[in-house]
Amino acid sequence: MVGAARLIFLCFIVNSIRTVLLVSMQDLSKSDIIIDIKKGFALRRIGMYSANIIEEIVHTFIPIDNFCATSPQTNICVYGSLRTRTNVVPLATTMASRNTIHTLASYTSERVAALINKDVTRVLSQHHPDEILNNVKMAHFIRNEVYYDKNDDKTLATISAASTIHSNSNIPLLQPTPIEIILKQISNNKIGFEYLSQKDLEFFLSTVFSIIDNSYTISNAYESLDTFSDYILGQSVLALRYCSMVPLNAETSQPCIVVSTLFTRIPNDDKSIYMMYRLIPLPAIYNDETFIYTNLPKILGINVINERFMMWNEDTNDNQCLMSTIVHCKRMPISISLSNPSCVSQLLDERQTVTTMCHVSRSSYAGQNILRIADGLWYFNHIERPKLCTVYLSAKESMESINIIETSIIATSCGKTVQCADVQLPPSTCTKRRISIISNIPFHANNVQNFVLPIRNLTETLVASYHAQEKYNREEITTYITSKKSMFNRITQEIGTYILSVCFLILSIICGYIIKFIKYKVEREINNIETLLETVIKV
């Protein structure tokens, strides 16, 4: 029965995984999540860091059209009817989150507004948006290019998907116009793109991502909008009496609204890009003891071109770095060459099978055997008996079953609840991602959902690293003791030599005094004899 379950399980994995490749650490830029089950760690991508940041502004021009006919007393309509020489009037400037602005102190609302106003003037001097807006309902300007949907029909009215017809009413409710939504957005002091329909939002995102990353594909507009929001610094809304530097026809020229969004990006050809990851150690259970790395940095930045890395041992301070799709730092972090011996270089070196420089701790098993690696990606370890888990489409309707019989990596279907005997896994968001798993049979998984990958050699690697570390520590202690012993012997020899030298010197001095004393006695005796002889001779 177990053999049949294993066969079904293996067939499920083969059918689920779209791409199977040899994984290399050089493929970091293509992976959102990297799990090394040979060494026992995982990398979850946060974003990118580069010292070379480019500012970009996208301007969306929207004609007011018939809005003033129904709402003539609004400020923008009153302004459009005034005879004044001022063409552009800023309505509001909204900044991104407080953390972003706190980290990027150079970007104040005044500076963002000044950058946007300057670029709007440039667009008006180089283009004639009023001519384009005669045929389309909106146009986007970025750099020196203009983008608009050629299939856009300005005459079509839009029914709100959220506005349903009341059961007692036959009158459909039209959704608010883009101008009304923008004015509400200003009153709420928020950055938003709710004024764009689903189709317009997809076109807008395809426009900005063609500048940010031309390899980016939009599978879900709202997920892509969340991604783009991480690039945004601020947004301004401006009212124009006419959508050009000077009106081509004073009678036909109409006012318009410009929504300008300032964002940053990293050059696609930048060789100084660091892919930023959160580093997660994976524990291994062996003989009711837990083995896990304890000295790994929490955040790791890797540059595969220059083979350098940056690390943070603690969660970053908002005053120093902001971790997002584009990582912003007040000061450039210190980078270290991967060629320098270190724990990180051993982890990332595929030729290094045992990580002697990474500290592996051993402790009693505390009973925690499930670890969340990422949203919808789980690590199950220390499976004492098979776990039968059920994937539920709804509260009552089950979809399929997953049988976990050993330590495994589990990916759950997005939006689905997974219920096991002793634990319930929450539903995950439907986010497109690429998972790379480094093992004896490594593979890449592109947007794969609901798979189970057994792990058999993680325990061996961590235990071997622990014993190698113990051996290394013993050798270090032995070397230290030997060196201390050698130093003691050398000091003893030196002290003995010094004592012998002192004794010899003292002995030499004593001998000198004795010889001098004997010489003195002899000389005195000789003098006495000579005196006696002289006396005898005289007599």
Outline type: elongated
Helical content, roughly? Answer: 25-40%
Note the total helix count. 11
Record field, number of beta strands: 27
Briefly note the structural class of the backbone: alpha+beta
Q: Report on the biggest sheet.
A: 10 strands, mixed
Whole-number radius of gyration? 39 Å
Architecture overview:
It is a single chain. The protein folds into two domains: 17-46 and 275-303 and 338-456, no CATH class; 54-161 and 173-265, no CATH class. It starts with a helix and ends with a helix. Strands 1, 2, 9, 12, 13, 14, 15, 16, 25 and 26 form a ten-stranded mixed sheet that branches. Strands 4-7-8-3-5-6 form a six-stranded antiparallel sheet, with helices on both faces. It has eleven helices and 27 strands. Helix 8 (198-212) crosses helix 9 (221-229). Strand 14 and strand 15 form a beta hairpin. With 539 residues, the chain is α+β, with helices and mostly antiparallel strands.
List keywords for this structure.
6-stranded antiparallel β-sheet, elongated, alpha+beta, 10-stranded mixed β-sheet, 11 helices, single chain, disordered N terminus, 2 domains, 539 residues
